[in-house]
Amino acid sequence: MTTLNQLTVADAAAKLANRECSSEDLVAAVLASIAQHDQQVGAYLTVDAESALAQSRAADAARAGGDIRPLLGIPVGMKDLLNVQGQPCTCASKILKGYVAPYDATAVAKLRAAGAVILGRLNMDEFAMGGSTENSAYQQTRNPWDLSRVPGGSSGGSAAAVAADEALATLGSDTGGSIRQPAGFCGCVGLKPTYGRVSRYGLTAFASSLDQIGPLTKTVRDSALLLGAISGRDPHDSTSLDAPVPDYAALLGGDLKGLRLGLPKEYFIDGLDAEVEAKVRAAVDQCRALGAEIVEISLPHSKYAVAVYYIIATAEASANLARFDGVRYGLRVDGEDPIDQYGKTRAAGFGQEVKRRIILGTYVLSSGYHDAYYLRAQKVRTLIRRDFDTAFEKCDAILTPVAPTAAYQFGEKISDPLKMYLGDIFTIPVNLAGICGVSVPCGFTSEKLPVGLHIVGPALREDVILKIGHAYEQSTPWHKVKPEIRGQKSEVSGQ
Amino acid sequence: MNYVANVGLEVHVQLRTKTKIFCGCPTTFGAPPNTHVCPVCLGYPGAMPAMNSEAIRLTVLSGLMLGCKINPYSKMDRKNYYYPDMPKNYQISQYDQPLCLGGGIEITRPDGTKKTIRLTRIHIEEDVGKNMHFAASSGIDFNRAGTPLMEIVTEPDMAGADEAMAFLEALKEILAYGGISDVNLEEGNMRCDVNSSVRPAGQETLGTKTELKNMNTFKGVHRALSYEIARQIADVEKGTRIRQETRRWDDLAGITLTMRSKEEAHDYRYFPEPDLLPIVLSQAQIDEWAQVLPELPEQRRARMVRDYGIPEYDAGVLSADQDIANYFEATAKLAQSAKAASNWIMTTVLAKLTELHLTIGEVKITPAQLAGLINLVEAKTINIPTAKEVFELMFAQGGDAAAIVQAKGLAQVSDTGAIEKFVDEAIAANAKTVADYKGGKEAALKALIGQVMKLSKGKANPGLVNDLLKRKLS
Hints:
The complex is a heterodimer of chains A (495) and B (474). Chain A has 495 residues and is an alpha/beta fold. Chain A has one domain: Amidase signature (AS) domain (Amidase signature (AS) enzymes), CATH 3.90.1300.10. Chain A contains 15 helices and eleven strands. The longest helix of chain A has 24 residues, at 371-394. The relative contact order of chain A is 0.14. Chain B has three domains: 3-288, no CATH class; 297-408, no CATH class; 416-473, Arc Repressor Mutant, subunit A. Chain B is 41% helix and 20% strand. Chain B contains 15 helices and 17 strands. Chain B has helices spanning 53-65, 161-177, 218-238, 283-291, 297-308, 312-319, 322-334, 338-356, 367-378, 384-397, 401-408, 416-429, 431-438, 443-455, 462-473; strands spanning 3-14, 69-70, 73-74, 77-80, 90-93, 100-101, 104-108, 114-126, 130-133, 138-141, 148-154, 190-200, 210-215, 245-250, 255-261, 271-272, 279-280. In chain B, strands 1, 2, 6, 7, 8, 11, 12, 13, 14 and 15 form a ten-stranded mixed beta sheet that branches. Chain B has a three-stranded antiparallel beta sheet with strand order 5-4-16, with no helix packed on it. In chain B, strands 3-17 form a two-stranded antiparallel sheet. The relative contact order of chain B is 0.09. Chain A binds chain B through residues 81-83, 89, 91, 96, 99, 101-103, 105, 200-205, 207-209, 235-239, 315-316, 318-319, 322-323, 325, 327-329, 338-339, 342, 362, 365-367, 370, 374, and chain B through 39, 42-51, 78, 80, 82-84, 87-90, 140, 267, 269-271, 274-277.
């Protein structure tokens, strides 16, 4: 029997509308699931149960009063870098320990306006820097499909919570793959919208020209529902796009006839896991069977994407993270003078990976190196963007793997940053080009680990990639398979 | 040997906007610490800047007034450095593509000759907070953080402290005229960094420059520059090499001191601000703003000379303050003599303002009322001493000059019969003076006129008295 926490957003909304359950029932079921599984999964950093229940009661009262907003009473979990008024927002970093957000991020405010219940703070790599959530300063998050493996990252908590039915849906953020890769690792749907589709106001910035908020959900339809709720122009974010927000969910349905899907010849590379490749190729065949025409395309500059990304993202991060100095909020370690205080605070507050990236970013912007690194990276970024422009003249969307491998063991890559960085090789170009991409489950490896299909679309064509993802998903059984969360398979350090 | 100084200024001007440059917090001065703040200007996680378009308009307007080329495409950049008064530890400024390029300001040198100081550029940026130090602790007031600033950078065209001072005065006047800034120095509306170098006369290349940071009074600039130039010359004479460095002015000691050398200079690691879009200005937009360009002080002076026929000196005095110039023009338009209006304002009104520390806006006499008073004098209804008396009454309580004159019976007596009576009385009572006059002493007539005025209690028309006396004594 399906319990309420296992419902999709769409099904829960229908049940709420038919008065088959209340929002309070729904939230209580999610809280029960968290109580039951999160000890093992570790998706949540904090859960304010009282606030969630109070919001659910308010939603139920509103519904009793005739309120029929589509997300009314639906609980949504938040990655720990999204500001929710009155809630902690640590970005899984010690440097923001004790910081309580004084305002709502626009995406959060929009979800509230749509009636959603804001529930819980989800674990992540510190400041979204990482691909395994191992860089959290607070706790490990485990992959619900295999607790000895990472959930991916940086939105690992957001993906694991959805996979473990500890949430109906969550929001994450994606700078180089941080929504799509953990969605792929955890067997859920993760959407990285077009840069500017969703306001970044209230999203603690990692790399401002790349960051984008998006949903992690159990189905493509749910991602469509959430995207519709959080999208739109925001005067607080000058880079948000002033484009109409379609009813994405209403545009789903139908087969793939008339659609041309591009396969980048450069993306099926050495280092791509054979099982992953097989699943993705099977998914491509399935799309063909659904009526799509498959065409070969070329994205020749993608091979530079990881290098370009680690220059631009770290450069922006080095400035974005400068504000964490112990002066106004968060951790403060006293020093002899302000400069000493900064050094001590930041040394104590930031983890290894964050420090590594701040140093790298500071270096590439330094006088004498700025042109060779930062400026050159910007030029290559333009070439990568043009590759996609050219490709989209030949196709409506592009299919690639989400990541070269399925979820790996804890500790497997954490000591080798370069290996870890290459895990984002298929997702990073999409952020650099500012376009959209979605990860949809496309089967399991022999070890029963989920594999993700990455569907990439042109700017503001979320409708196209969601339509493709939905058609594929509905013609395959993968989204219906649930992990069995059993005792710990290996010794992992719970905190 | 003779030395020549080269001075360049970087002037930070607070723009007159209601709200801060990137958020909706008010820019009003003097609020209790940290009451005009929000997540944006405090640099909270996730907060983002949104450009205040009025700051751009005011900067472009300044550029147009100062003859700059307006960049149709400019962008904001992040300038990275750590300081407690800077919430984000980067300042959003403009690096290589500022809003305005070039331009210049004409100054009048102490010897009266004119000189144009070239501008390099004008860009916009955000102000920082204010560190405050107490007995046992320090605090930061972020009310000022995010206040819109315009930075005007000049070429090293000024030859010394006097020219720098003249430049600042001229700039201040222009900015006030344009409504660009309140230019209130006490509130820190204009602050500048002063670059200076010296070179032997005849040498083309500039000497090594030093920078004096954060000067906030014009007098301070003058004193500091005078000192700094003399110091540099003395060092050069001694054979000591000038070091490129940042110095600060110790106002009490009256000296400049090393703050940091070039080697310790910041690497600001500028890069384009990804949270803000480039500023793209259409020619149509620039033209629209150019159409409502305010009149410059220099233009106004020329126009006042032309339209009102007043001397250049008068125009200079009256136009130094835009409100006074407006007051003059309003008065002159209604007065029968513009020169009389100029005289009244330059002497009587301005003296009152100085004496009582008032602004022209606080004066009770309206331009129309002052014109009324002037016209009574012109029509010889009252004489000048009476007019001064009436002015005092008007200054104290306002009111119409004619009404006061009537109520107090101060109108000049121009009735020949009445004056003749006083004249006869005066002649009868001053036989000796009369004899003196008849004996050829012209000055004696003046004494007799005085007597008549006394008898008439000052109301007699002095011209008529003069005529009558002469006739009767001839």
